[in-house]
Design brief:
Elements lengths: L1 E5 L6 H14 L4 E6 L5 H4 L4 H6 L7 H8 L19 H5 L1 E3 L2 E5 L13 H16 L3 E6 L16 E6 L3 H17 L3 E9 L2 H9 L6 E6 L2 H8 L9 H24 L1
Parallel strand pairs: 1-5, 1-6, 2-4, 2-5, 6-7, 7-8
Antiparallel strand pairs: 3-4
Helix pairs in contact: 1-10, 4-6
The structure holds adenosine-5'-diphosphate and magnesium ion (MG).
Length: about 260
Amino acid sequence: MKVAITGKGGVGKTTFASMLSRMFADEGYRVVAVDADPDANLALALGFPKEVYDSIVPISEMKKLVSDRTATSEGTFNKMFKLNPKVDDIPEKYCKTHNGVGLLTLGTVDTGGSGCVCPEHVLLKRLCSHLILQSKDVVVMDMEAGIEHLGRGTAQGVDAFIVVVEPGERSLQTYRKVKKLGKDIGVQRVFVVGNKMRDDEDIEFIKSNLEDGEALGFVHYNQSVIDSDRANQSPYDVSEETRNEIRAIKNRLLEIEAENKRNK
Ligand SMILES: Nc1ncnc2c1ncn2[C@@H]1O[C@H](COP(=O)(O)OP(=O)(O)O)[C@@H](O)[C@H]1O
Ligand SMILES: [Mg+2]
Protein backbone atom coordinates (compact mmCIF):
# COMPACT_ATOMS: atom_id res chain seq x y z
CA MET A 1 0.00 0.00 0.00
CA LYS A 2 1.66 3.17 -1.20
CA VAL A 3 -0.23 6.41 -0.73
CA ALA A 4 0.50 10.10 -1.07
CA ILE A 5 -1.33 12.47 1.25
CA THR A 6 -2.20 15.73 -0.47
CA GLY A 7 -4.53 18.70 -0.07
CA LYS A 8 -4.71 22.37 0.71
CA GLY A 9 -2.39 23.88 3.32
CA GLY A 10 -3.43 23.39 6.93
CA VAL A 11 -6.14 20.78 6.34
CA GLY A 12 -4.30 18.14 8.37
CA LYS A 13 -2.12 16.26 5.88
CA THR A 14 0.79 15.85 8.27
CA THR A 15 -1.48 14.97 11.18
CA PHE A 16 -3.24 12.32 9.12
CA ALA A 17 -0.05 10.98 7.51
CA SER A 18 1.55 10.55 10.93
CA MET A 19 -1.44 8.80 12.42
CA LEU A 20 -1.93 6.48 9.46
CA SER A 21 1.77 5.57 9.53
CA ARG A 22 1.71 4.82 13.22
CA MET A 23 -1.50 2.83 12.92
CA PHE A 24 0.03 0.58 10.25
CA ALA A 25 3.23 0.26 12.29
CA ASP A 26 1.27 -0.74 15.41
CA GLU A 27 -0.32 -3.52 13.42
CA GLY A 28 3.05 -4.90 12.47
CA TYR A 29 3.46 -3.49 8.97
CA ARG A 30 6.81 -2.18 7.88
CA VAL A 31 6.16 1.48 7.30
CA VAL A 32 8.22 4.11 5.55
CA ALA A 33 6.87 7.63 6.02
CA VAL A 34 8.24 10.10 3.51
CA ASP A 35 8.28 13.78 4.34
CA ALA A 36 8.03 15.36 0.90
CA ASP A 37 7.10 18.81 2.17
CA PRO A 38 9.96 21.34 2.01
CA ASP A 39 8.50 22.76 5.21
CA ALA A 40 9.16 19.42 6.86
CA ASN A 41 7.42 18.64 10.13
CA LEU A 42 6.34 15.03 9.89
CA ALA A 43 9.03 13.95 12.37
CA LEU A 44 7.37 16.01 15.10
CA ALA A 45 3.95 14.59 14.33
CA LEU A 46 5.42 11.08 14.48
CA GLY A 47 6.70 11.86 17.97
CA PHE A 48 10.44 11.83 17.28
CA PRO A 49 12.46 13.15 20.22
CA LYS A 50 13.84 16.63 19.73
CA GLU A 51 17.49 15.47 19.55
CA VAL A 52 16.65 13.20 16.64
CA TYR A 53 14.43 15.77 15.01
CA ASP A 54 17.18 18.40 15.21
CA SER A 55 19.71 16.03 13.69
CA ILE A 56 17.71 15.26 10.57
CA VAL A 57 19.39 16.39 7.36
CA PRO A 58 17.05 16.24 4.38
CA ILE A 59 18.29 14.08 1.50
CA SER A 60 18.38 17.01 -0.92
CA GLU A 61 20.75 18.83 1.43
CA MET A 62 23.21 15.95 1.56
CA LYS A 63 25.44 17.60 -1.00
CA LYS A 64 28.02 14.85 -1.08
CA LEU A 65 25.42 12.13 -1.43
CA VAL A 66 23.70 14.01 -4.25
CA SER A 67 26.91 14.68 -6.13
CA ASP A 68 28.36 11.18 -5.52
CA ARG A 69 25.24 9.51 -6.80
CA THR A 70 24.54 11.78 -9.72
CA ALA A 71 28.23 12.27 -10.54
CA THR A 72 28.04 16.02 -10.53
CA SER A 73 30.64 18.01 -8.67
CA GLU A 74 29.51 20.43 -6.04
CA GLY A 75 29.08 24.00 -7.18
CA THR A 76 29.51 23.35 -10.85
CA PHE A 77 26.81 23.03 -13.37
CA ASN A 78 27.26 19.79 -15.14
CA LYS A 79 24.69 18.80 -17.68
CA MET A 80 26.07 15.32 -17.91
CA PHE A 81 24.85 14.04 -14.56
CA LYS A 82 23.40 10.56 -14.32
CA LEU A 83 19.68 10.21 -14.73
CA ASN A 84 19.68 6.82 -13.02
CA PRO A 85 21.59 7.35 -9.77
CA LYS A 86 21.95 4.43 -7.35
CA VAL A 87 19.36 4.79 -4.59
CA ASP A 88 18.60 1.31 -3.31
CA ASP A 89 20.73 1.65 -0.17
CA ILE A 90 19.41 5.10 0.76
CA PRO A 91 16.22 4.12 2.63
CA GLU A 92 18.13 1.75 4.89
CA LYS A 93 20.98 4.19 5.54
CA TYR A 94 19.05 7.39 6.01
CA CYS A 95 15.74 6.31 7.56
CA LYS A 96 15.29 7.45 11.13
CA THR A 97 13.05 5.10 13.04
CA HIS A 98 10.76 5.85 15.97
CA ASN A 99 7.59 4.13 17.19
CA GLY A 100 8.11 1.56 14.46
CA VAL A 101 7.92 4.09 11.64
CA GLY A 102 10.91 4.70 9.39
CA LEU A 103 11.09 8.33 8.30
CA LEU A 104 12.79 9.74 5.23
CA THR A 105 12.95 13.51 4.93
CA LEU A 106 13.40 14.64 1.35
CA GLY A 107 13.88 18.38 1.66
CA THR A 108 13.49 21.16 -0.84
CA VAL A 109 14.28 20.90 -4.46
CA ASP A 110 14.79 24.27 -6.02
CA THR A 111 13.36 23.54 -9.40
CA GLY A 112 13.67 27.08 -10.74
CA GLY A 113 10.54 26.54 -12.77
CA SER A 114 8.65 23.42 -13.64
CA GLY A 115 10.90 22.45 -16.51
CA CYS A 116 14.09 22.36 -14.46
CA VAL A 117 15.85 19.08 -13.96
CA CYS A 118 18.50 19.33 -11.30
CA PRO A 119 20.57 16.55 -9.70
CA GLU A 120 18.69 16.79 -6.39
CA HIS A 121 15.41 16.34 -8.16
CA VAL A 122 16.63 13.40 -10.21
CA LEU A 123 17.86 11.71 -7.04
CA LEU A 124 14.64 12.32 -5.07
CA LYS A 125 12.42 11.24 -7.91
CA ARG A 126 14.38 8.04 -8.38
CA LEU A 127 14.43 7.42 -4.64
CA CYS A 128 10.66 7.81 -4.45
CA SER A 129 9.95 5.51 -7.35
CA HIS A 130 12.35 2.98 -5.84
CA LEU A 131 10.45 3.16 -2.54
CA ILE A 132 7.10 2.89 -4.26
CA LEU A 133 8.13 -0.07 -6.38
CA GLN A 134 10.32 -1.97 -3.93
CA SER A 135 8.92 -1.48 -0.44
CA LYS A 136 7.11 -4.55 0.71
CA ASP A 137 4.60 -3.01 3.01
CA VAL A 138 3.48 0.53 3.45
CA VAL A 139 4.73 3.86 2.15
CA VAL A 140 2.97 7.03 3.27
CA MET A 141 4.10 10.24 1.61
CA ASP A 142 3.28 13.55 3.28
CA MET A 143 3.16 15.98 0.38
CA GLU A 144 3.55 19.73 0.10
CA ALA A 145 0.27 21.71 0.00
CA GLY A 146 -1.28 22.38 -3.35
CA ILE A 147 -0.75 20.55 -6.60
CA GLU A 148 2.08 22.15 -8.58
CA HIS A 149 4.75 19.81 -7.17
CA LEU A 150 2.68 16.70 -7.93
CA GLY A 151 3.43 17.25 -11.59
CA ARG A 152 7.13 16.91 -10.86
CA GLY A 153 6.48 13.29 -10.27
CA THR A 154 7.87 12.28 -6.88
CA ALA A 155 4.49 10.69 -6.05
CA GLN A 156 3.94 9.16 -9.46
CA GLY A 157 3.32 5.44 -9.19
CA VAL A 158 1.59 5.45 -5.81
CA ASP A 159 -1.51 3.29 -5.49
CA ALA A 160 -3.59 6.28 -4.55
CA PHE A 161 -3.65 9.93 -3.68
CA ILE A 162 -5.49 10.64 -0.48
CA VAL A 163 -6.73 14.20 -0.45
CA VAL A 164 -7.45 15.57 3.00
CA VAL A 165 -10.29 18.08 2.99
CA GLU A 166 -12.00 20.27 5.56
CA PRO A 167 -15.70 21.07 5.48
CA GLY A 168 -15.30 23.96 3.04
CA GLU A 169 -15.33 24.78 -0.63
CA ARG A 170 -11.67 25.83 -0.78
CA SER A 171 -10.16 22.50 0.16
CA LEU A 172 -12.66 20.70 -2.11
CA GLN A 173 -11.41 22.87 -4.94
CA THR A 174 -7.89 21.54 -4.30
CA TYR A 175 -9.30 18.01 -4.26
CA ARG A 176 -10.82 18.49 -7.74
CA LYS A 177 -7.50 19.75 -9.08
CA VAL A 178 -5.63 16.79 -7.57
CA LYS A 179 -8.15 14.41 -9.09
CA LYS A 180 -7.64 15.87 -12.55
CA LEU A 181 -3.87 15.92 -12.19
CA GLY A 182 -3.87 12.36 -10.87
CA LYS A 183 -5.54 11.22 -14.09
CA ASP A 184 -3.01 13.17 -16.14
CA ILE A 185 -0.03 11.52 -14.48
CA GLY A 186 -1.53 8.04 -14.29
CA VAL A 187 -2.67 7.84 -10.65
CA GLN A 188 -6.17 6.50 -11.15
CA ARG A 189 -7.35 6.35 -7.58
CA VAL A 190 -7.96 9.53 -5.68
CA PHE A 191 -9.65 9.22 -2.32
CA VAL A 192 -10.81 11.76 0.20
CA VAL A 193 -10.49 11.93 3.96
CA GLY A 194 -12.71 14.55 5.55
CA ASN A 195 -10.87 16.05 8.52
CA LYS A 196 -11.96 18.43 11.30
CA MET A 197 -15.60 17.36 11.01
CA ARG A 198 -17.76 19.10 13.61
CA ASP A 199 -21.08 17.38 12.99
CA ASP A 200 -23.09 15.24 10.57
CA GLU A 201 -23.83 18.28 8.47
CA ASP A 202 -20.11 18.65 7.74
CA ILE A 203 -19.94 15.00 6.72
CA GLU A 204 -22.99 15.35 4.49
CA PHE A 205 -21.51 18.45 2.91
CA ILE A 206 -18.33 16.60 1.96
CA LYS A 207 -20.21 13.52 0.74
CA SER A 208 -22.49 15.62 -1.43
CA ASN A 209 -19.40 16.88 -3.25
CA LEU A 210 -17.97 13.44 -3.95
CA GLU A 211 -18.79 10.48 -6.11
CA ASP A 212 -19.66 7.14 -4.53
CA GLY A 213 -16.70 5.34 -3.08
CA GLU A 214 -14.40 8.35 -3.04
CA ALA A 215 -14.71 9.05 0.67
CA LEU A 216 -12.36 6.83 2.65
CA GLY A 217 -13.62 8.12 5.93
CA PHE A 218 -13.93 11.04 8.30
CA VAL A 219 -11.99 12.38 11.25
CA HIS A 220 -13.74 14.64 13.70
CA TYR A 221 -12.39 17.92 14.93
CA ASN A 222 -10.66 17.11 18.18
CA GLN A 223 -9.24 19.67 20.56
CA SER A 224 -6.71 17.19 21.90
CA VAL A 225 -5.20 16.87 18.40
CA ILE A 226 -4.41 20.59 18.40
CA ASP A 227 -3.22 20.40 21.99
CA SER A 228 -0.82 17.61 21.00
CA ASP A 229 0.74 19.97 18.46
CA ARG A 230 1.21 22.61 21.14
CA ALA A 231 2.68 20.05 23.55
CA ASN A 232 4.88 18.60 20.81
CA GLN A 233 3.33 15.17 21.12
CA SER A 234 2.32 12.76 18.41
CA PRO A 235 -1.44 13.19 17.78
CA TYR A 236 -1.58 9.39 17.61
CA ASP A 237 -0.87 9.18 21.32
CA VAL A 238 -3.55 11.53 22.57
CA SER A 239 -6.98 10.34 21.57
CA GLU A 240 -8.58 6.91 21.42
CA GLU A 241 -11.51 8.42 19.57
CA THR A 242 -9.36 9.80 16.75
CA ARG A 243 -7.31 6.61 16.61
CA ASN A 244 -10.52 4.66 16.06
CA GLU A 245 -11.44 6.91 13.16
CA ILE A 246 -7.98 6.45 11.63
CA ARG A 247 -8.28 2.68 12.12
CA ALA A 248 -11.55 2.64 10.17
CA ILE A 249 -9.85 4.55 7.34
CA LYS A 250 -6.90 2.17 7.36
CA ASN A 251 -9.27 -0.82 7.23
CA ARG A 252 -11.13 0.71 4.33
CA LEU A 253 -7.81 1.14 2.49
CA LEU A 254 -6.94 -2.51 3.08
CA GLU A 255 -10.39 -3.56 1.86
CA ILE A 256 -9.93 -1.58 -1.34
CA GLU A 257 -6.50 -3.10 -1.80
CA ALA A 258 -7.93 -6.61 -1.38
CA GLU A 259 -10.79 -5.89 -3.82
CA ASN A 260 -8.26 -4.68 -6.30
CA LYS A 261 -6.12 -7.76 -6.02
CA ARG A 262 -9.15 -9.96 -6.61
CA ASN A 263 -10.06 -8.02 -9.74
CA LYS A 264 -6.59 -8.28 -11.22
N1 LIG B 1 -8.91 16.39 13.45
C1 LIG B 1 -8.35 17.51 13.90
N2 LIG B 1 -8.91 18.19 14.93
C2 LIG B 1 -8.36 19.33 15.38
N3 LIG B 1 -7.25 19.89 14.86
C3 LIG B 1 -6.65 19.28 13.86
C4 LIG B 1 -7.15 18.06 13.30
N4 LIG B 1 -6.32 17.68 12.30
C5 LIG B 1 -5.35 18.61 12.23
N5 LIG B 1 -5.54 19.59 13.15
C6 LIG B 1 -4.70 20.77 13.40
O1 LIG B 1 -4.65 21.55 12.21
C7 LIG B 1 -3.38 22.17 12.08
C8 LIG B 1 -2.78 21.84 10.72
O2 LIG B 1 -2.51 20.46 10.65
P1 LIG B 1 -1.34 19.86 9.76
O3 LIG B 1 -1.45 18.38 9.87
O4 LIG B 1 -0.05 20.49 10.09
O5 LIG B 1 -1.83 20.34 8.31
P2 LIG B 1 -1.08 20.28 6.90
O6 LIG B 1 0.01 19.26 6.99
O7 LIG B 1 -2.16 19.90 5.94
O8 LIG B 1 -0.58 21.66 6.64
C9 LIG B 1 -2.53 21.67 13.24
O9 LIG B 1 -2.55 22.63 14.27
C10 LIG B 1 -3.25 20.41 13.69
O10 LIG B 1 -3.06 20.14 15.06
MG1 LIG C 1 2.07 19.43 6.63
